[in-house]
Design a protein that fits this description.
alpha+beta, three-stranded antiparallel β-sheet, 5 strands, 189 residues, 13% strand, binds zinc ion
Length: 189
């Protein structure tokens, strides 16, 4: 691929995004959340949407920005980290994603310090690499935080459960209210 040769032998540094942006990408681009949602799908978010703007701000200029199908493919892979049993299977999924994205640690020297960074030799998988590296770094800093899925029957969005008891059931107040109403009606029937 021609664009790889621009980089020569230098490894491609993999930038990172906040975990909240990873969540937004998966919930807007992955296939399952769209299929389960009862809201009609309105297509992928526009180029000036929040997740796209964040991606553009970190994406290396020498690589073309991924189109929507490429983003969706990466999001579908990372979605599995959230659906599998936490923590054991989620850790295995992250290990698999690290391998798929060709991610490895790269050390770079600044003036007075050595910095630990992520790099990949697979520029064509950079979107998967960005999502995975961002998640791995987040998990490294917050190992007790659970990665899961909304339990509403009308939603399959991913969530980051920061509750001390790891008992967050719904991705949003909207889903929580919907399920409360459903339970209330079921009791009344
Ligand atoms: Zn939800």
């Amino acid at each position: 691929m021609a664009r790889v040769s621009i980089l020569g032998d230098m490894p491609l540094r993999v930038p990172q995004m906040p975990v909240q942006t990873v969540v937004e990408f998966i919930n807007e681009w992955a296939t399952v959340p769209q299929e389960v949602s009862t809201r009609p799908w309105e297509g992928y978010p526009a180029r000036d949407s929040g997740p796209r703007r964040t991606l553009r701000s970190i994406w290396p200029s020498e690589i073309g920005e991924p189109d929507d199908p490429a983003v969706a493919e990466a999001c579908d892979l990372v979605y599995l980290v959230f659906t599998d049993a936490w923590p054991g299977s989620a850790a295995e999924r992250l290990n698999a994603a690290l391998a798929d994205a060709g991610l490895r640690v790269h050390l770079s020297a600044g003036d007075e310090a050595i910095r630990l960074e992520w790099a990949t030799d697979c520029p064509e998988r950079l979107m998967l690499a960005v999502l995975t590296a961002s998640l791995v770094d987040y998990v490294g800093q917050a190992p007790q935080v659970r990665l899961g899925i909304c339990e509403s029957s009308a939603c399959a969005d991913v969530l980051v459960d920061r509750s001390p008891t790891r008992t967050k059931h719904y991705c949003s107040a909207r889903c929580q209210t919907r399920e409360r109403v459903r339970a209330y009606r079921a009791r009344g029937a």
